[in-house]
Specification:
heterodimer, A: about 120 residues, mainly beta, 6-stranded mixed sheet, 10 strands, about 0% helix, B: about 110 residues, 5-stranded antiparallel sheet, 11 strands
Chain lengths: ~120, ~110
């Protein structure tokens, strides 16, 4: 079956512009996660959604970052007024539920470059 | 605060030269330890989940083991196609459902 898909695969933007990154999870997966991978850093958790529950936003680095999940499926991560330090690969993952026994499957990522 | 440390940062092996990658962790309460493989320009690909000390899992040339403080990923007779970055992550009682990742080990296997 289809895996997690993300778009765009690459995004180059100018400092101060807003960007939107999209994630399509695996069909039937109720949990969706966003992580950020910077050069030389481990994956850093940003936010996760589980069903209709309020999202866990504890990893968002600033109020310039926001995310939504429509209809329990597709998610969009929005970064407002981008800064150069936002340059990274943004990875989306989904899992059947949020139980520790449920594997998180990752998409290919969106590479964001802020000039 | 939960911490995951992987070593070495980089490892170069010749084809057929077996070795082990280490993942040590300091966490509030381990619910699961995950190994992923990541190729350049791609997302992490799931390999194994381990839940309790003493558990072992195998897949082709890879074998993952778990103790109360660390996990090892043993690579037996590696091939060039095993070259990748191997990531370790933990799911803990203190972190809800998010994974906490180490920075990975970059493995290069040469002919």
């Amino acid at each position: 079956g289809a895996g997690v898909s993300q778009s765009p695969s690459n995004k180059v933007t100018e400092k101060g512009k807003d960007v939107e990154l999209r994630c399509d999870p695996i069909s039937g997966h109720t949990a969706l996660y966003w992580y950020r991978q910077s050069l030389g850093q481990g994956l850093e958790f940003l936010i996760y959604f589980q069903g209709n529950s309020a999202p866990d936003k504890s990893g968002l680095p600033s109020d310039r970052f926001s995310a939504e999940r429509t209809g329990g499926s597709v998610s969009t991560l929005t970064i407002q007024r981008t800064q150069q330090e936002d340059s990274a690969v943004y990875l989306c993952a989904s899992s059947l539920t949020t139980k520790s026994t449920d594997t998180q499957y990752f998409g290919p990522g969106t590479r964001l470059t802020v000039l | 605060e939960d911490q995951v440390t992987q070593s070495p940062e980089a490892l170069r092996l010749q084809e057929g030269e077996s070795s082990s990658l280490n993942c040590s962790y300091t966490v509030s309460g381990l619910r699961g330890l995950f190994w992923y493989r990541q190729d350049p320009g791609k997302g992490p690909e799931f390999l194994f989940t381990l839940y309790s000390a003493g558990e072992e899992k195998e897949k082709e040339r890879l074998k993952a083991t778990l103790t109360k403080k660390e996990s090892f990923l043993h690579i037996t007779a590696p091939k060039p196609e095993d070259s990748a970055t191997y990531l370790c992550a933990v799911h803990t009682t203190g972190t809800a459902s998010k994974l906490t990742f180490g920075t990975g080990t970059r493995l290069q296997v040469t002919l």
